[in-house]
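Page 47, continued from p. 46.
Same chain as before, 158 aa.
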Amino acid sequence: MATARVSAGLLMFRRSASSGLEVYLAHPGGPFFKNKDDGAWTVPKGEIPEGEEPLAAALREFEEETGLRIDASSTFHELGSIRQKGGKTVYAWAVEGSCPPGHCLKSNTFQIEWPPRSGQFQDFPEIDRAEFFPVDLARQKINAAQIAFLDRLVARID
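Result:
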C-alpha cells in the first residue's frame, strides 16, 4: 500500500450546542495555497510508508501536521477512501475530539524552491492553520473529493 499516491488521515469531529456537528479541517501551507480558501481545506493526512498500517499512519500524520495527539485506543469510525482529482487515494477515519484551549498549531515543514527558478529554497509549514467548521460550511471549505468523508461521517453518527 505504500506509495506517494496513497495517504491516510483523521477527520476529528465534535458536537457543539450552537452549531451542531463540527469537523476539524486543515489549510495547506506554502505559496500555492496562500490565497486559496474554499475548496482548499483538507482532512489532516499524509503518505502511508511501506509497512505502516493505514490507521497508524493517519494517527502519526495528524500529530505531525497539527501537534495534537489522538489516543490510539479512541473509537475510530472508518470512512473508507476517496480518489482526488490528481489521482491520490485518501483513506480516512473519524474520531471525536477537540483542541485544548489555547492550542497552538505545530505543523511539520517542507522545503521548495521559492520563488520558482530563483535558486533559493524556503521552508513552509505543511499546514498553516486548522479549525473547526460546522458541516455545512465544511462542505464549501474542503477539497471537493473529500466531501464524501463528511457525508459518510454524518450518516454514521446521526
